[in-house]
Amino acid sequence: MTREPYPTARRADTIDVLHETPVSDPYRWLEDPDSPETQGWLLAQADLFKRESGPQRFRERIGELLRSGSVGTPAWRGGRAFFSRRTPDQEHAVYYVAEPDGTERALIDPMALDPSGLTTLDTVQPDKEGRLLAYQISVGGTEESVLYVIDVTTGSRVEGPIDRCRYSPVAWLPGGEAFYYVRRLPSTEVPENESQFHRRVYLHRVGTSTEDDVMIFGQGLKMTNYYGVAVSRDGRWLQISASEGTAPRNDLWVADLTASPPERPELVVVQEGVDAQTGLTFGRDGRLYVHTDRDAPRGRICVTDPATPGAGGWRDLVPEDPEAVLSDYAILDDLERPVMLVSWTRHAISEISVHDLATGERLGEVPTPGLGSIGGLSERPEGGFEAWFGYTDNTTPPTIQRYDARTGETTLWAASPGAVEVPAVRTSQEVYRSKDGTEVRMLVISPVDAEGPRPTILYGYGGFGLSMTPGYSASVLAWVEAGGVYAIANLRGGGEEGEDWHRAGMLAHKQNVFDDFHAAAEHLIATGVTTREQLAISGGSNGGLLVGAALTQRPDLYAAVVCSAPLLDMVRYELFGLGATWNVEYGSAEDPEQFGWLRSYSPYHHVREGVEYPAVLFTVFQSDTRVHPLHAWKMCAALQHASASDRPVLLRNETEVGHGARSISRTVDLSADTLTFLARHTGL
Fold first, then answer.
1. Where's the Peptidase S9A N-terminal domain (predicted)?
2. Selected catalytic residue, list 538, 659, 663, 671
């Protein structure tokens, strides 16, 4: 096919010399979203996308499959259950409370707050008695959360708005009179380009001005630190965690609030300067439970005395498993023989084991509905014999399961509310070898009657220790129902095989992620699942970096690419959005050695003129405050200039949405546009 001419994009002679290395950046001007030149170019790209994208397919079917709705795991407080649910016709999930008699009431409905659908509910935290609810909302995809508190019984607002609370935990003290939370310093107190950083932990007393909040922690520490804060159920123990950006390690402190006042907690070090992640639970039995990957990359649970929380006193309760990654646990103690439930992922498939709470002895397993993903393992804070967990797999919309430790039975507690006819698919887990011989796994979802090579989408992420596990996806099911194959690779950089697996794909080892991805593609071709002419790749955020590197390193291997909200200029990524918090994952261009790592794969800097590149669709979101859309803008301009192929390079630039949550109708439109593009260029 003959493609349309691309919008004109000026190539400037911009060259930086970094560590004695010249680095060309011809589209630096696109970093200014407000310039008339950038605005004109974006309008021209929007017109091109509209003309080139053709009739939208899949939209109706994706919408039908999303009518399943969703349901969230309950949080129990004072006999009340708090949970989220989205019914078939709702744009956003609504947050509910269920009274002890089963009566339900909606507490937070984003569409009632804002009928435009642009307001999202970012996080919620009921107080310890279930009488007050802290919640955070943001507008237009910015993720700039504003915190409010309401009375659960009346629904009336008792606190807020409190701004600058993005990613803030809320840790209630008993009685609901005060809570610890995390807030950024005012922009007037920090340099202009650092307003997204400089977090602090504060104590806030409900009904008082935030001007009176007491700063508890964070002064003088790194500006990119994230903080966690929690208070034990009895109100005695405070724990504060600090992580440098997204680093896979944290410093951790505890304070006994019966020995020091909440405004001036005397913090004791649990771990500091240790290359490990650790979290604590203060048990109802007086023991301190420690979940850590210290000396255990796949995770272990230890016990100790809260008075001596340091690692020297830890004793293994549930040791590291050589194959499975320990993800969560719950304590059920209203039994003759109290137990701990431990959630694991074994090669990305979830399971739950049952252990004696005193000794850690493995007693059995919790029955689960199938081979899928488990999340949100929860118990009653006051103790009990039952636990709840979320379950989903490739053909099962989210459900909530209830486990009764007295009978050993698992039953359905709540299903997604919509009745949906889900297509029959065949799911298999493939094992293949990467370039260096490492075994990598991949989930392959295909039609039950699949024979011969088919149009295939290969998806990956490979970063930040995040695991790709089975889950219900309307777009995946719509693609497979139409005759395609969808493959999800468990690349290094993820967490599927523990922290060592993550670290094998970060910093100096990032190329392993791309090699794993290329090897997945070659495996799909070699085994007859697909052909190069039928193979598309897709990824978003860090996964957008993945497919950006893939298309520049192996343009011959892929027919089409969807690159969503990507990082692509790895030399300058730290200067925009939350980039400065990710140099612990990727490295910093300020360091000569790390600059070498970044420059070696930075997709924007490896676009070469005269290469026949695949068809590429960039999807970006104008209000994205995590990954600035400039990455995709610059890369799009570079590819449009360089590609010798007739296959198009297009940009879908969406306004009033960001990196995270969005309304269902916008989700449907985005999914339909991307699948339509991939179908067109893989022959589906």
1. 7-414
2. 659
